[in-house]
Amino acid sequence: MKLQRFKITLLAAVLALSGCAYHLVGHGGGSGAIPTNVTSVTITGNVGSELLTQLRQQLQSDRYTLVNSGDVTDQAHHATVSVTLATPIFTPSTYDISGVATQYRMTLTGSLQVDRDGETIWHSGPIQRQGDVFVTGGPVSIEASKQRLQKDLSKQWLSDAIGRLRSGF
């Protein structure tokens, strides 16, 4: 009897959530932020070539072709994905007993935007990833740690950005 009540309660909760169009981010129905009638997409932005290449690989689709901005043949069925990524911010987060910073927090912030016919049709809002760099060792070791962390945060940021773009949230 208790199991049956549990099943009915669970079913009611699922129906209530689906009735209000609720769905998990990244698992939404539909086409995400890129409309279904788009046949070509251009990717632009202020990111490095490595991140731009990874973004192009992640956005490959059977629905549309990735093209350079000069190769657009059908403007009515074209969209542009713009990527904006700010310079990483380093903020001291931990200090030793003498007041010298021993750890820095690196924050990487950016956003995506989809434009069509000169109008913005979707914006991701800020996408942010953070991590810590410990400042032990010499300047070469610290710089190598910063570069490793920035590369890791860039990968995480890209994953979050693709998830938002695909879900449309």
Question: Would you give the CATH topology?
Answer: Double Stranded RNA Binding Domain
The whole-angstrom Rg is 22 Å
Considering the protein shown, what is the CATH homologous superfamily? Lipoprotein like domain
- Percent of residues in helices: 25-40%
**In angstroms, what separates the terminal alpha carbons?**
40 Å
Count up the domains.
Answer: 1
Number of helices: 3
Major beta-sheet overview: 7 strands, mixed
- β-strand amount: 25-35%
Could you characterize what this model shows?
The protein is of the alpha/beta class and 169 residues long. The protein has a single domain, classed as Lipoprotein like domain (Double Stranded RNA Binding Domain), CATH 3.30.160. It contains 3 helices and 7 strands; from the N terminus they run H-E-H-E-E-E-E-E-E-H. Strands 1, 2, 3, 4, 5, 6 and 7 form a 7-stranded mixed sheet that branches. A hairpin with a 2-residue loop joins strand 5 (101-116) and strand 6. The longest helix has 29 residues, at 139-167. The model is unreliable at 20-29 (pLDDT under 50).
Topology (SSEs and partners):
Layout: H1 2-19, E1 40-45, H2 49-58, E2 65-66, E3 78-85, E4 89-95, E5 101-116, E6 119-123, E7 127-134, H3 139-167
Parallel strand pairs: 1-2, 1-3
Antiparallel strand pairs: 3-5, 4-5, 5-6, 5-7
Helix pairs in contact: 2-3
